[in-house]
Amino acid sequence: MIEDSTFRVVVAGGGIAGAEALLALRELGGDDLSLTLVEPRAELRLTALEPGAAFGTGEAGRLPIRAVASAAGADVVRDALESVDAEQRTIHTRDGERIRYDALLVAIGSRRVATVPGTLTWSPGGDAQDFLTLLADLEEGRVRRLAFVVPSRCPWPLPAYELALMTARRLERRGARADLRLVTSEAAPLAVFGAVGSAAVARELDDAGVAFSGGVVPSVGTEGELVVSMWPTSERFTADRVVVLPHIFGHEIAGLRGDIEGFLVVDEHCAVRGMPAIWAAGEATDRRPMHGGLAARQADCAAQEIARRAGAEVPVGWYIPLLRAQLRTGRGSIWLQRDISDPLDAGSACGVPLWTPPGKIAARRLGALLASHDEPGGLRREATRSTA
Q1: How far apart are CA 300 and CA 16, in angstroms?
Q2: Across-strand partners of 84?
């Protein structure tokens, strides 16, 4: 039972990690916790659905931030985190508001940077129109060689696989042909999912006619035309167009000590190293890979530790990186799962969901809230142009 009814928890960031953390904190700490969410946006955007938008199979779901806050009994400050005073245990917002905390959870995400000039950088929240134009060029024969490039240190490569597979299947249905290639530093297709998962993805790529070049450091240059070079091999792929995933960097927040790329270094309990009473989850941290389901697990772990700090009788929160993902292939889905902390776990791959509720967002509490809103008048769906 929590004894201090004024224990103040501030969650900075209302994405998947922040939303899951609020719901977990209310469940674990009860009404004795005072929860405040600091988030400038009005809606939580489910960006994991966006690779399918250009194909008419994925809509960008949106959930009002106030709906999440209401479910967790949290106050909302429509503002952004500007600085942290760890000694005084206060934060300052961009608009100058000062908020005290007993525990702070930083879940502010990351910032994306386009990688290679002259290429199409695919990024969540970006405009799908450029990719729609590319699809039209492929169908009409103006583009015949297309490369999907996953840059080195990319925190989450799966969108490149979805884009490549859905492109291949679309061209197949339209009777069009193109030379498609996926280039990545991964030794095998989606190797993070282990031998079983990777083999399933490799079979799907082969069946779809998408060539795979792995275990290389890709670079894109122009020599009269686009060329993808692959070090340390001498392999080169001359492309009409290149689709590349972005690099990401952490946000630089005054008072928070990050690594050289701006990410917060966290321990096995998701506490920020060297900063008392501060935890972090999601893309704000140095954890790899960066994935919505793992962000939710980090949030659950941090919430458990914060509730314990407040006096709740709950077990110690340990971060267990159980990776779950739905890979849409253009003709169905492959559901993938692996405990990436266990080197002996070969992973799982299946044609039916491996968790409940099923979906792109494998989050214990947020998933249930999304399911309850996924009906008319509930979860909003952003209209997308159907191209199927």
Answers
A1: 11
A2: 91
The tokens describing 214, both together, are 């792995």
Residues forming a β-bridge with 242 = 147
Q: How far is the C-alpha of 279 from the C-alpha of 191, rounded, in Å?
A: 29
Whether the link from the prior residue into 357 is cis, omega within 30° of 0, is: yes
**For all residues of the chain together, what is the average pLDDT?**
88
Q: Pairing between strand 226-231 and 217-222?
A: antiparallel
Distance CA 67, CA 63 (A): 7
Structure-token match 């134009």, residue found: 133
Give the residue-averaged pLDDT of 251-261. 93
Nearest to 63 by CA among 16, 12, 127, 124: 16
For residue 84, the SS3 value is strand
Residues 351 and 331: beta-carbon distance below 8 Å: no
Q: Which pLDDT tens digit goes with each residue over 204-242?
A: 999 999 999 999 988 888 766 778 888 888 888 999 999
pLDDT confidence of residue 5: 61
Beta bridge partners of 241: 146
Number of C-beta neighbours around residue 141 at 10 A: 10
Is residue 42 a contact partner of residue 32, using CB atoms and an 8 Å limit?
no
The CA distances from residue 233 to 79, 114, 137, 229, in Å, are 48, 25, 30, 8
Give φ, ψ of 258 to 5 degrees.
Answer: -105, 180
Sheet holding 241-244, edge to edge: 120-121, 241-244, 145-150, 179-184, 210-213
The model carries a pTM of: 0.89
Q: What is the DSSP secondary-structure string of 122-188?
A: --TTS-THHHHHHHHHHHTTS--EEEEEE-TT-S--HHHHHHHHHHHHHHHHHT---EEEEEESSSS
Structural domains of the chain sorted by starting position, each given as residue range(s) with its CATH number in brackets? 7-109+251-321 (3.50.50.60), 114-245 (3.50.50.60)
Q: Which residues pair with 91 in a beta bridge?
A: 84, 99
pLDDT for position 224 = 62
- Please state the length of the chain: 388
Pair of tokens at residue 186: 């991964």
Please choose, from the candidates 58, 208, 216, 217, the residue with its C-alpha nearest in 3D space to the C-alpha of residue 131. 58
pLDDT at residue 93 in the model: 97
